[in-house]
């Protein structure tokens, strides 16, 4: 509690000792800022050292209160970072229903079912096991895992990784197992419904596993694939008691699936898993309703070993006692003639239809409940839908990806990155929820949002979408970096980008008068000002949309880039979607945020100035005066204001911004161009002439909208 006064005392004492203005010469300067010289000591002003120490102490005080007293996760936890594990592969699930990530060795190792909350736990009972039988005898039975765990030791573990291969092109992945000594090859193709321009199946919390069996033998072989799953996600809640399993079968339009439901009965956000397989001519589906995944597992192993099937007892399991864990298994079996191949189809679905965020204030319904109901009984029909529609999904995925994959002008690394980095669309703590049925326009618009005439229709039709800045930066729709990622959203699911923009717009035109102390500098300010774009729409540990700006390192009302990025995205969205209603709704909001931004042009030269602190997305980089990054964004936003005014025939506003653009372009060239590139800023400091890789971000956005040439060229 005495840290800040103590720092002030030290600072005053240092000044009293007549220290040189250059500050202290210290060799640990890299702990506080980037070294200005490659080696040796660095001059760091004492005030900077004290400022950073003050930040650390304020952060620790805030962190202790948040995590130890309030028992809530920190939006950025610098003290308990998750250690890097390079084990992760392609996640399962569509958009906004939660995700389950499998590693590239096939393990189920990351869980994001509760919105925005991750568990990094490999659940060892979650496995695929193969059983081969020839002439009525089991000749091979193996867990398809390289693990050698301390539980389920009655199973045959330790598959040799030399005989397995992994490949992923999101949203699909392939695992190939060349069973040693058996002349049988298994290929598991994993498919999730991530389908551009689809707003139904893309929301489904399901994954399908298509097992292609190639029999290279000269005799028929009976192949069984057993899928086992623990009831839970590997957390302490698995032992909380009251969880239970039951077998199910679901038939529709002549197609039948069967499996086991695993009901996970927690007080907050309960859910049901479904493991299932598709019954068809030549394929038998059997199940085991419950077993102990913490034991040896011999009864499960011997059951499968005996005849390649599971016993399939009917009836529910008893609810678990406190401290107990339960699991279940489903098995698909078929005969594969010599030198031929067959297919077995299994699925995993999870149904957590009704969710609360950390504050538990409001109940939200996930997007898929619009089509499959919100009563928590949708797992069987979700399983059926997945197993009967995955072929259609794959056709759409291939039609989407094929033109890019066959484009010889694009390098392979780019193709891989373009698709595989899209995993964050689903696995970014992503939520996609419905508006409450009784929600009215006034509830959404707030006191100042009446001009957003299509806010309610858009959100009612397409729901609300949000994703985290990162798995360890737990803020939804962090707008300064959504600016970059938004291309994926607007090009693949444009209605979700439009919905997100309406949510931002309604926040812009209203204000939040709650005071908050910011960690960087310790100042107190309102959470959000009117006519200023928010940094984010909230923390999953609190109540997103209801309370915005979870970020409290800086007061982002003084950031120079957020308002500009809103304007740039509005025109870019219009350019790609041709949505005139959207443009007309957003035009007054764009005018308001640009008027708010004009106050940063203190000398009226048509170019905004940075304020001498880290007042933009690079939130550890101090910027003084006109800068390449924010100045370039400003000019691009002014250019787009001219273009939008032209489209909307608002000629007075168009002329206003054309005049600003003319002055601003001249000032930008004069103050920042050094003959080779634009300087980082115009402060004249030792870092002022740095080459900033993002200096042309505004120009990039203009180019994406065909505004980088002619009269609008910046």
From TrEMBL:
InterPro entries: 6-hairpin_glycosidase_sf, 6hp_glycosidase-like_sf, GH116_catalytic, GH116_N, Non-lysos_glucosylceramidase. Residues 89-393 form the Glycosyl-hydrolase family 116 N-terminal domain. Pfam families: DUF608, Glyco_hydr_116N. GO terms for molecular function: beta-glucosidase activity. It comes from the Eukaryota. One of its GO terms (biological process) is central nervous system development. Transmembrane segments: none annotated. Residues 463-709 form the Glycosyl-hydrolase family 116 catalytic region domain. PANTHER family: BILE ACID BETA-GLUCOSIDASE-RELATED, NON-LYSOSOMAL GLUCOSYLCERAMIDASE. This is GBA2 glucosylceramidase. The gene is Gba2.
């Amino acid at each position: 509690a005495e840290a800040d006064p103590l720092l002030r005392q030290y600072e005053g004492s240092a000044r009293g000792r007549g220290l040189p203005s250059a500050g202290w010469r210290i060799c640990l300067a890299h702990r506080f800022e980037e070294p200005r010289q490659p080696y040796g000591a660095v001059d760091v002003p004492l005030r900077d050292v004290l400022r950073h120490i003050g930040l650390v102490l304020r952060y620790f005080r805030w962190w202790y209160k948040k995590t130890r007293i309030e028992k809530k996760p920190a939006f950025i936890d610098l003290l308990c970072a998750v250690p890097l594990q390079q084990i992760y592969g392609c996640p399962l699930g569509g958009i906004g229903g939660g995700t389950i990530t499998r590693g590239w060795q096939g393990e189920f190792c990351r869980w994001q079912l509760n919105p925005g909350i991750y568990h990094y736990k490999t659940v060892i009972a979650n496995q695929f096991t193969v059983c081969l039988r020839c002439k009525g005898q089991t000749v091979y039975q193996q867990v398809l895992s390289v693990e050698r765990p301390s539980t389920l030791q009655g199973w045959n573990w330790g598959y040799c990784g030399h005989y397995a291969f992994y490949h992923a092109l999101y949203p699909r992945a392939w695992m190939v197992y060349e069973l040693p000594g058996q002349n049988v090859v298994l290929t598991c193709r994993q498919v999730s419904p991530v389908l551009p321009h689809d707003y139904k199946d893309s929301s489904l919390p399901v994954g399908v596993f298509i097992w292609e069996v190639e029999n290279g033998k000269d005799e028929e072989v009976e192949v069984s694939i057993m899928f086992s799953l623990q009831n839970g996600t590997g957390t302490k809640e698995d032992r909380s008691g009251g969880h239970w399993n039951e077998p199910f079968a679901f038939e529709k339009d002549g197609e039948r699936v069967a499996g086991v439901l695993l009901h996970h009965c927690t007080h907050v956000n309960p859910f049901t898993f479904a493991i299932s397989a598709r019954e068809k001519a030549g394929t038998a589906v059997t199940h085991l309703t419950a077993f102990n995944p913490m034991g040896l597992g011999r009864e499960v192993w011997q059951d499968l070993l005996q005849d390649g099937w599971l016993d399939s007892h009917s009836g529910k399991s008893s609810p678990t006692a406190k401290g107990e864990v339960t699991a279940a298994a489903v098995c698909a079996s078929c005969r594969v003639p010599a030198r031929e191949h067959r297919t077995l189809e299994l699925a995993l679905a999870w149904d957590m239809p009704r969710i609360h965020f950390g504050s538990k204030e409001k109940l939200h319904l996930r997007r898929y409940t619009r089509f499959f109901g919100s009563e928590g009984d949708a797992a069987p029909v979700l399983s059926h839908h997945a197993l009967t529609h995955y072929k259609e999904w794959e056709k759409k995925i291939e039609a989407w990806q094929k033109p890019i994959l066959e484009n010889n002008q694009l390098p392979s690394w780019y193709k891989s990155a373009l698709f595989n980095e899209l995993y964050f669309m689903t696995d970014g703590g992503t939520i996609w929820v419905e508006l409450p049925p009784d929600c009215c326009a006034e509830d959404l618009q707030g006191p100042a949002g009446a001009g957003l005439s299509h806010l309610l229709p858009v959100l009612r039709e397409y729901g609300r979408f949000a994703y985290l800045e990162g798995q360890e930066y737990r803020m939804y729709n962090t707008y300064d970096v959504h600016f970059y990622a938004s291309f994926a959203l607007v090009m693949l699911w444009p209605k979700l980008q439009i919905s997100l923009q309406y949510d931002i717009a309604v926040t812009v035109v209203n204000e939040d008068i709650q005071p908050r102390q910011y960690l960087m500098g310790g100042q107190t300010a309102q959470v959000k000002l009117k006519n200023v774009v928010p940094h984010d729409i909230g923390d999953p540990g609190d109540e997103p949309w209801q309370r915005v700006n979870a970020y409290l390192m800086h007061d982002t009302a003084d950031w120079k880039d957020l308002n500009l990025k809103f304007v740039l995205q509005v025109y870019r969205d219009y350019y790609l979607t041709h949505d005139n209603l959207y443009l007309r709704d957003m035009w007054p909001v764009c005018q308001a945020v640009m008027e708010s931004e004009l106050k940063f042009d203190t000398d009226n030269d048509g170019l905004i100035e940075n304020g001498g602190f880290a007042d933009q997305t690079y939130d550890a980089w101090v910027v003084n005066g006109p800068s390449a990054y924010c100045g370039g964004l400003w000019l691009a936003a002014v250019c787009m204001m001219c273009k939008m005014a032209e489209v909307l025939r608002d000629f007075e506003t168009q002329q206003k911004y054309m005049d600003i653009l003319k002055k601003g372009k001249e000032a930008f060239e004069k103050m920042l161009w050094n003959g080779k590139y634009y300087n980082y800023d115009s402060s004249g400091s030792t870092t002022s002439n740095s080459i900033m890789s993002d200096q042309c971000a505004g120009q990039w956005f203009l180019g994406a909208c065909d505004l980088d040439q002619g009269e609008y060229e910046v």
